[in-house]
Amino acid sequence: MAAGATVRPSGGGGSGLWDAASLSLRLAAMTEQDPELKRFGADYHGYRLRPPLADRTIRSFERESGVRLPESYRRFLAEVADGGAGPYYGVLGLTEQLDDEDAVHDLREECLAPGFLATPFPYTRAIPGPGKGSRARYELSGTLVIAEAGCGMFARLVVTGKSAGQVWFDDPDWGGLAPGPDFRTWYTDWLESTG
């Protein structure tokens, strides 16, 4: 695959969402183009993916959380990886053990609290932030933090509610909460970007 090639949906009898081989080739090309890991977040994830999850592990998480994960994310976990290389500092693994000092640790713990993911996310449009000097207060139930963007900003996958499947950008100190594309588009846009 050429360095600028796109990631195709998988063919054949799979889900049609992911082509793990094509994705791996694209990550290899990105590694070759950025050997010094200068692209934002690359020094953290190193263009490496964690192993995919067994279906029973995903089902167990869903049972304990009282949710069904959005299909594109669920298939990513099963067919591609349990996190690793991706937008910002990379995709957090569903089973990844986070260091207590990691900026996203407490937010991920909140997401895993009983009932949090099962409570529908209430928004369908952007919620403006407070601007400089204060912190936004908005409801984040029904979302799972999937990536840290730095400076107190995060990507959240909406798991339940009318916006389920979308990745929202959470900037509580300045910009607020902004809707984004579905998980697959969010991830493949990063794969196909050049900067």
Report on the architecture of this protein.
This protein is an alpha+beta fold and 195 residues long. 28% of the residues lie in helices and 12% in strands. A five-stranded antiparallel beta sheet has the order 1-5-4-3-2. Strand 3 (153-158) and strand 4 (167-171) form a beta hairpin. It is globular, with a radius of gyration of 16 Å. Mean pLDDT is 89; it is low at 1-14.
List the helices and strands and how they pair.
Layout: H1 20-33, H2 42-45, H3 55-65, H4 71-79, H5 105-111, E1 127-128, E2 143-150, E3 153-158, E4 167-171, E5 176-178, H6 183-192
Antiparallel strand pairs: 1-5, 2-3, 3-4, 4-5
Q: How do the SSEs run, as a string of H and E?
A: HHHHHEEEEEH
The low-confidence parts are 1-14
Beginning-to-end CA distance, first to last residue: 19 Å
Binned, the helix content reads 25-40%
Count of distinct strands:
5
Give Rg in angstroms: 16 Å
Number of helices: 6
Question: Mean pLDDT across all residues, rounded?
Answer: 89
Order of strands side by side in the largest beta sheet? 1-5-4-3-2
Q: Could you tell me the strand content as a percent range?
A: 5-15%
What best-fitting shape do the alpha-carbon axes yield? Answer: globular
> What composes the largest sheet?
5 strands, antiparallel
The class by helix and strand makeup works out as alpha+beta
Oligomer: single chain
Structure summary:
With 195 residues, this protein is α+β, with helices and mostly antiparallel strands. The chain contains six helices and five strands. A five-stranded antiparallel sheet has the order 1-5-4-3-2.
